[in-house]
Write a structure and sequence with these properties.
single chain, 487 residues, mainly alpha, Sodium/glucose cotransporter, two-stranded antiparallel sheet, 1% strand, Sodium:solute symporter, Na/solute_symporter_CS, transmembrane helix, transmembrane, Na/Glc_symporter_sf
Length: 487
C-alpha cells in the first residue's frame, strides 16, 4: 500500500470516529425517547436545518449520479441540476411552516403518521399509515440501494479495495451513528458533511477552470458530439430541450413531499427563522449545483468511458494531486452518506414506528421497547439494502434514484402537499397513494418518456384522484382540540 493510500485510510478512520462521536452526543440529547430518535426532539436550528436539507438533496446525486448523466447526455443535466437550489429554497420559505406547525400540534413523528392524523385517524387512519409506510419502505429501499452503490464505488477506488468491502465499511458506519442518535445524529453529521461538500466544490471548480481554455473545451465537446452543448432534445428528461425545466416543479415537490426530506421541516425548532434557513439553502445549493460540470470535463478528456457513472472517480484519479484527491473524495463520500443515512433513518422509522402504530390500536409513542425497535430496524434494513446492492443487476445510479424517489413523490403528493391547503378524506389519501405508485412506477419501468414525465404524470393523476375520491367520501379532519369532526 503506497503512502497516499495510507493517508486515505487515516482520513477515513479519523472522520469515521468523529461521525460516530457525533452520533453518541446526539444520543444523549434525545434523552432516550422515540420522539427524539424520529424528529430530533424538534430541536434543529437554522443552519443545521439548512445543512441537512442541502446535504440530503445534493449528495450522491450531485457528486456521482449527476456528473455521470452530464457525461452521457450533456449540459442539459447541468441546467436541470441547478433548479434544485431555488426549488428547495421555495419549499423552505412557502411550505415548511405549514407542515411544521400542523405536525407539532398533532404530535406527528413521521410523514406516514402525519398523513394518518391529518385525515382523521382511527381505524381508517391506521390503514392509511400502514400503506404509506409500506410504500416508503419499498421505494426508499430502491433509492438507498443506489446510494450504497455510489458510495461503495467511490470508496473502492479511493481505498484500493473491492466494491463489496467498501460498501460494507461505509454502510457500517452509517448504521452505527444513525442507530445511536436517530435524526439528530443524521442532521448534525449532515451539517459537517455539507461544509466539506462546499469546500470540495470550490476546489473542483478552480481546478477545472484553470486547467483548460474555455474555447478549446467548447470546440472539443462539439467535435465529440454537438448535442452535448447545443441539445435538440432533452434526454434524459424528455423529447424537448425544454423538458429540463420540469426539474423545477419536480425538485420543489421532492423537497416538500418526500418523507426523508419533509421530516426535516417537522424537526426544526418552532421559533426557527425560515428566511434564514432559505438563505443558507440558496447559497449552499447554488454552489453544489455546479459540480455536474465535471461530466463535461471528463467527456472532453476521455470520451470513451465504458460506464458514465465513473466520471467523478476518473476525474479525481487523473486530474487531482493524490493528497487533494484523498481529501475531496472524503468530502464526496460524506456527501453520499448524507443521503444514505437519511434514507436509512426514514425507512427504519416507517418500519419500526409506522407499521407498529398501524398494526395495533394499543401502540403508543415512547412505549416500552420502542426505542430498541427503532434502533434494531436501522441495523436490519441497512444490512438488507447492502445485500440487495451486492446482488442487483447493473443499473444507472440516477435512474434508480428517480425510480424510487419519483414514484414515492407521486404517491405522497395528495396526502402531504395538497392536504395542507385542501383537506381530503382518508379514502382519497389511500386511493391517491396507490394510483400514484402504479402510474409512476409503470411509466418509469415500461414507457420511454424520459425520467421526469413518469413521476410528474403520476403526481397529476394522483392529485386528481385525491380530490375526486375525497369529494365522494366522508372527510374527517384532526382538530387542535384532539377531536375528529365529519365535514
Amino acid at each position: 500500500m503506497d503512502a497516499y493510500k495510507l493517508f486515505n485510510w487515516g482520513l477515513l478512520i479519523l472522520t469515521f470516529g468523529f461521525l460516530i462521536y457525533l452520533g453518541y452526543l446526539s444520543s444523549k440529547m434525545m434523552a432516550k425517547s422515540e420522539g427524539g430518535f424520529l424528529v430530533a426532539g424538534r430541536s434543529l436550528g437554522a443552519f443545521v436545518g439548512a445543512g441537512t436539507i442541502v446535504a440530503t438533496g445534493f449528495s450522491g446525486w450531485g457528486f456521482m449520479g449527476s456528473p455521470g448523466v452530464v457525461y452521457q447526455f450533456g449540459a442539459v443535466e447541468v441546467l436541470g441540476n441547478f433548479f434544485f437550489a431555488p426549488a428547495m429554497m421555495i419549499a423552505v420559505l412557502y411550505f415548511a411552516r405549514f407542515l411544521q406547525s400542523r405536525a407539532a400540534d398533532m404530535g406527528s413523528n413521521t410523514i406516514p403518521e402525519y398523513i394518518a392524523q391529518i385525515h382523521g385517524g382511527g381505524g381508517m387512519g391506521r390503514l392509511v399509515q400502514g400503506v404509506a409506510a409500506l410504500l416508503t419502505i419499498v421505494l426508499l429501499l430502491v433509492f438507498l440501494v443506489s446510494q450504497i452503490k455510489a458510495v461503495g464505488l467511490l470508496g473502492a477506488s479511493w481505498l484500493g479495495i473491492d466494491l463489496g468491502p467498501s460498501a460494507l465499511l461505509m454502510v457500517g458506519v452509517i448504521i452505527i451513528y444513525t442507530m445511536l442518535g436517530g435524526l439528530a445524529a443524521v442532521a448534525w453529521t449532515d451539517t459537517v458533511m455539507v461544509c466539506g461538500m462546499a469546500l470540495a466544490a470550490v476546489i473542483i471548480l478552480i481546478q477545472m477552470l484553470t486547467s483548460v481554455d474555455l474555447g478549446e473545451w467548447e470546440s472539443s465537446l462539439n467535435a465529440i458530439d454537438p448535442e452535448l452543448l447545443n441539445p435538440t432534445q432533452g434526454a434524459p428528461y424528455g423529447d424537448s430541450p425544454w423538458s429540463a425545466f420540469l426539474v423545477l416543479p419536480y425538485a420543489f415537490l421532492f423537497a416538500a413531499v418526500l418523507p426523508y426530506m419533509a421530516i426535516r421541516f417537522m424537526a426544526m425548532r418552532p421559533d426557527v427563522k425560515l428566511h434564514k434557513v432559505g438563505v443558507y439553502v440558496a447559497i449552499l445549493g447554488a454552489l453544489l449545483s455546479l459540480i455536474p460540470i465535471v461530466g463535461l470535463y471528463v467527456r472532453m478528456q476521455m470520451p470513451d468511458l465504458a460506464d458514465p457513472d465513473n466520471a467523478m472517480p476518473v476525474y479525481l484519479e487523473h486530474y487531482m494531486h493524490p493528497a487533494l484527491q484523498g481529501i475531496i473524495t472524503l468530502f464526496i463520500i460524506f456527501a453520499m452518506k448524507s443521503t444514505a443515512n437519511s434514507l436509512l433513518h426514514t425507512v427504519a422509522s416507517a418500519t419500526s414506528h409506522d407499521l407498529r402504530m398501524a398494526l395495533s390500536s394499543e401502540a403508543r409513542v415512547d412505549s416500552k421497547g420502542a426505542l430498541f425497535i427503532n434502533r434494531t430496524a436501522v441495523v436490519v434494513l441497512g444490512v438488507i439494502a447492502l445485500l440487495i446492492m451486492l446482488y442487483a443487476p447493473p443499473f444507472m445510479l440516477s435512474w434508480l434514484g428517480i425510480l424510487g424517489s419519483g414514484t414515492l413523490l407521486a404517491s405522497m403528493i395528495g396526502p402531504v402537499f395538497i392536504s395542507t391547503f385542501w383537506q381530503g378524506s382518508a379514502w382519497g389519501a389511500l386511493i391517491a397513494m396507490l394510483i400514484g405508485f402504479v402510474v409512476s412506477g409503470y411509466m418509469m419501468l415500461f414507457a420511454n418518456v424520459g425520467w421526469l414525465m413518469g413521476p410528474l404524470t403520476g403526481c397529476l393523476v394522483s392529485s386528481i384522484c385525491y380530490v375526486s375520491v375525497s369529494l365522494m367520501t366522508p372527510r374527517r379532519t384532526w382538530q387542535k382540540t384532539s377531536t375528529c369532526l365529519t365535514e
